[in-house]
Write a structure and sequence with these properties.
Length: about 400
């Protein structure tokens, strides 16, 4: 009999499905497991494992460990394009070990010798516990190793330009860097077959807190409103799917609206346009507290069991930093994910990083242009797609103990 204690379990399904473990003994992990002969098996490190659950677990681990945070869905698409998530018959062919992401031996050698990847390899060792200097090509038959190799190879080829956004541009990038001599249409066609969005059964309650303090110019506040509308366009707005609320804050909190105020996209965007700039102090702590005690309540439209996200749009220079961090911690404890968006040339990134949920590489962004927000939209969708880590009343689930000595023994 073995006892395994975990901090949070997002979902647990027996055999061929997924379980997520977060922050186990200080190391971020995200596993797909299966009970085999009474033992708990991590399918992300099981040779020749395949399937969409395995791929998505690997991609999420890599993203949340901040190894490859803003890949614009490229790594997920790449797994399907290369091997249909490992389900193509020749994925694990004799004497070939490239795995789900089909990393050829010469590609693996480029990764092994590239000095520019040293920092990424250090991060892999620190966050996932894999010493890349000891990895062999044969190890890539394990999905996690194949995915990491694909991420490293892509980082090597993308360089400072990063991953292009959009399937068309990624198809050309794939031909130029990953599969020279192939047709871009192969990537394009297969990527379109892949369902990039999730089938969300849970609802999404999304609240924007807009800073209109004196330290922000009126045009920066207008840019913040345009940002809100840009994000809103990514979601279906209705009382049954996604609801959006807005808080406008400076010295006072007013001029916004609750989650249940607008149930259509057109009405919502008109209401966003109507939120007026009002200069004053930067009372960020009060804005977060208001979101907790007013916006995310059933009285004002929040729904039990919904994914709850607060997007703080600010320059990050609050009047009371300690109180701001205290309120942010209180929000997270109630199951509210916080994204922090910087909208000023004088933004305080340290405060944004302290306020935002982890990992900050996917929850903090400086607003330079709307074209840079594709990764943020994808991350919001990802958070809303995840199984809830909290009870319906918004309280965090406690640690659990999974005890197993046969296939049917699971105890909380």
């Amino acid at each position: 009999m073995v006892l395994l204690k975990l901090k949070l379990v997002q979902r647990l399904i027996i055999c061929d499905t997924a379980i997520d473990f977060v922050n186990h003994e200080g190391v971020l992990t995200f596993f797909v497991v299966c009970f085999v002969n009474g033992q708990l098996t991590d399918k992300t490190t099981t040779p020749n494992a395949s399937g969409s659950d395995v791929v998505e677990a690997v991609v999420n681990l890599i993203r949340e460990a901040c190894i490859f945070p803003n890949d614009k869905k490229y790594l997920r698409r790449l797994a399907y394009v290369e091997s249909m998530d490992g389900l193509e018959a020749n994925t694990y062919r004799p004497n070939y070990y490239g795995g789900i992401w089909q990393i050829d031996q010469d590609m693996f050698q480029q990764i092994a010798t590239a000095i520019v990847l040293d920092d990424a390899k250090k991060m892999i060792k620190q966050s996932i516990g894999i010493d890349w200097s000891k990895v062999q090509w044969v190890d890539l038959a394990k999905p996690l190793y194949s995915g990491l190799a694909a991420a490293l190879f892509t980082l090597l080829k993308a360089g400072k330009n990063g991953i292009p956004r959009g399937i068309h541009y990624q198809a050309n990038f794939w031909v130029n860097t990953y599969r020279p001599g192939h047709l871009a249409n192969v990537f394009f066609t297969k990527s379109n077959k892949l369902e990039t969005g999730c089938k969300r059964t849970n609802t999404l309650d999304l609240v924007f807190a807009l800073d209109s303090s004196t330290s922000l110019a009126p045009q920066e506040f207008d840019a913040a409103k345009q940002f809100v509308k840009y994000i809103v366009d990514s979601f279906e707005i209705s009382s049954d799917t996604t609801q959006v609320g807005v808080i406008r804050f400076s010295t006072t909190l007013d001029g916004g609206f609750n989650l249940n105020a607008h149930t259509s996209a057109d009405g919502l965007k008109k209401a966003i346009d109507g939120v007026q700039y009002k200069s004053g102090g930067t009372h960020t702590a009060e804005a977060i507290e208001y979101a907790i005690n007013n916006c995310f309540t059933t009285t004002n439209g929040a729904r039990l069991g919904s994914s709850k996200i607060l997007i703080l749009v600010t320059d990050g220079r609050s009047e009371n930093r300690n109180e701001t961090l205290r309120q942010a911690a209180a929000a997270k404890a109630k199951g509210i994910s916080i994204f922090a968006i910087g909208v000023s040339a004088q933004v305080d990134e340290r405060e944004l990083n302290a306020v935002a949920s982890q990992p900050t590489c996917t929850h903090v962004q400086i607003l330079n242009s709307f074209a840079d927000l594709d990764s943020l939209k994808a991350e919001i969708e990802q958070v809303s797609c995840k199984a809830s880590e909290f009870n319906l009343d918004g309280h965090e689930m406690g640690s659990i103990v999974v005890q197993y000595d046969d296939i049917n023994t699971i105890k909380r």
